[in-house]
Amino acid sequence: MFSLEGITTNVQDWLLMKFNPTMALAIECVIVILLSISLFAILGLVLVLMERKVAAHIQIRLGPNRVGPGGMFQTVADTLKLIMKEGLTPDKADKFLFNLAPFVVMMVGMLLLAPIAFAKNFQIWDINIGVLYISSVSSLSVIGILMAGWASNNKYSLLGAMRSGAQIVSYELSAGFAVLTIVVLTGSLQISEIINAQQNGWWIFKGHIPAVIAFVLYIIAVTAETNRAPFDLAEAESELTAGFHTEYSGMRFALFFLAEYINIFIVCAIGATLFFGGWMPLHIGNWEAFNHLMDYIPSSVWFMGKTFFLIFLIMWFRWTFPRLRVDQLLNLEWKYLLPISLFNLLLVAVITILGWHF
Amino acid sequence: MFLKEYITDVVTGVTSLLKGMRKTGYYFTHPKEIITEQYPDNRATLLMSDRFKGEVVMPHDANNEHTCTGCTACELACPNGTIKVVTKFETSPEGKKKKAIDALVYRLELCTMCNLCIVACPSDAIKMAPNFEHSVFDRTKLTKVLNQPGSKIREGIE
Q: Which of A30, A49, A249, A313 is deepest in the core (most CB within 10 A)?
């Protein structure tokens, strides 16, 4: 049966056979870096195409259908175009920060990749504070956005960046509380343990209503955190031209664009891990035959399937809901999501203490 | 009381969002609803709506007869001088002189498809056609004579 675990074990055995342990570790690091960069590139291409296709079908259109079969190479052509374009730096911009900002945003995405379990025993770094690491690192992306907005020396960029700052700082709270719900249920911050705890059923089924509420809160909060519609105030084409990346062009714009999709992938991967059991196949109680059948589907397929389902959900939101105003945005967080998530956390704590979950 | 309002707010908000998602989800899962016309590919089967205003034409029947009396109402109605009616006098077999059109000159490049000439025409001699492929390499080709060569007015039209 296909498994990524076997490949990694073989590679490590071979490296340890050929080189000394330090050298083997260095080579493994290089392989991991290359793999994550290529994952980013592929994800960028696939997700942009998926977004355009989903948007088109929701709006009763066809979407890109000219380049390649069914428009498959549209995003490749777009990337080629963006690479060819001139990367202009405005005259009065803070050159250093302006050029640094896209890389900071990308770097945050790369850091977040570390604790995600892509398949059974296929994880870059199974850190024991995985969830804490994710929620702390993900808030760093606001630095890159503020940097871009400030260094552009453009009022629209600055407004967009400031909005984005207010938004990410507020929505971090309810995203954190939603994550905390699962941490309370599992009793561990480690990603692998959270997944193992879902062996006999995913948390969204086992955790009753609080887990469902937490999932809804999580999806809303991360949609806001990734600056996507209906919370795309930071970009708000109709008001701020393009928000914080107004002045960016060529490949640096492409990096921002890519970072947006990478962030979506990462938050959806985390959501899938916490609520839908990551790579864990669908197991129902004690249906032995059914559980065994489900185990035959490779764990990487389960993980990707769940993640892409959540990505589709977020895209569905984007093409259905109208954009919020800034005051409505903050109202939603501070008057609705935060009280509900606090109450939900209390509820889940009671359920866990009394052992009411399965 | 406050709590009740708060909860109804949340519930109505969520249900209205779900209604929207149901609609878009329906469109997503029903590709037959797609309204995109892939134009150059579907030229053969392209359906234009009846009210589409592409250019002014003068319908002729099988005997090469039209119903234009040469009254110049369309020329007077046209706001930007698109139509020019050139009239002549025909002598009927009984020796009576009758006004008829020599040429109804229509300049497509000036036309705004405002439909005023069609409304003004007392004998329904001209109408709008749903034809929109007007591109030519020479703009003199846009000046058209609407009545066909050798055509004449139908009997009984005054």
A: A49
pTM given for the model:
0.81
Strand B65-66 to strand B152-153: parallel, antiparallel, or no bridges (unpaired)? parallel
- Pair A344, A180: CB distance under 8 Å: no
Q: What is the mean pLDDT of residues A313-326?
A: 86
Backbone angles phi, psi at B129, to 5 degrees: -105, 150
Q: What is the largest CA-CA distance in chain A?
A: 67
Residue whose entry in the numeric block shows the structure tokens 């065994």? A292
| Strand ranges in chain A using DSSP code E only, listed in sequence order | 117-119, 122-123
Provide the percentage of residues in chain B whose pLDDT is more than 90: 4
Q: Which of B28, B29, B36 to mutate to test the interface with A (most CBs of A within 10 A)?
A: B28
Closest CA to A343 of A214, A189, A168: A214
| Chain B positions with Cβ closer than 8 Å to A | 9-10, 17, 20-21, 23-25, 27-28, 31, 33-36, 38
Query: Which residue do the tokens 């690091």 mark?
Result: A29
- Residue A294 confidence (pLDDT) above 80: no
Distance from CA of B25 to the nearest CA of A (A): 7
CB–CB of B25 and A57 under 8 A?
no
- Pick the residue from chain A with its C-alpha nearest to B20: A320
Asked if the model's pLDDT at residue A340 lies above 70, the reply is yes
Query: Is A280 in a helix, a strand, or coil?
Result: coil
**What are residue A135's DSSP bridge partners?**
none
CB A144 within 8 A of CB A245: no
CA–CA separation, A25 vs A10, rounded Å?
14
Dihedrals φ, ψ of B10, to 5°? Answer: -60, -45
Segment (H or E) for B77: helix B73-77
Separation CA B57–CA B59 (nearest Å): 6
CA-based nearest distance A318→chain B, Å: 10
H helices of A319-337, in order, are 326-331
Report yes or no: A292 and A142 within 8 Å, Cβ to Cβ.
no
Q: Token digits for B72? A: 């110049």
Using a CB-CB distance cutoff of 8 angstroms, which residues of chain B are in contact with residue A61? Answer: 34-36
How many angstroms separate the CA atoms of B118 and B106, rounded?
A: 13
Tokens of B61: 């029947």
Indicate if the pLDDT at residue B17 is higher than 70.
yes
- Residue B138 phi, psi dihedral angles, 5° rounding: -125, 130
Among candidates B17, B28, B38 on the partner chain, residue whose Cβ is nearest the Cβ of A57 = B28
Cis before A230 (ω within 30): yes
Domain segments of chain A: what residues? 87-354
Chain B residues whose beta carbon lies within 8 Å of the beta carbon of residue A340: 10
β-strand B97-107 against B83-91: which pairing, if any? antiparallel
Residue located via tokens 């960028």: A44
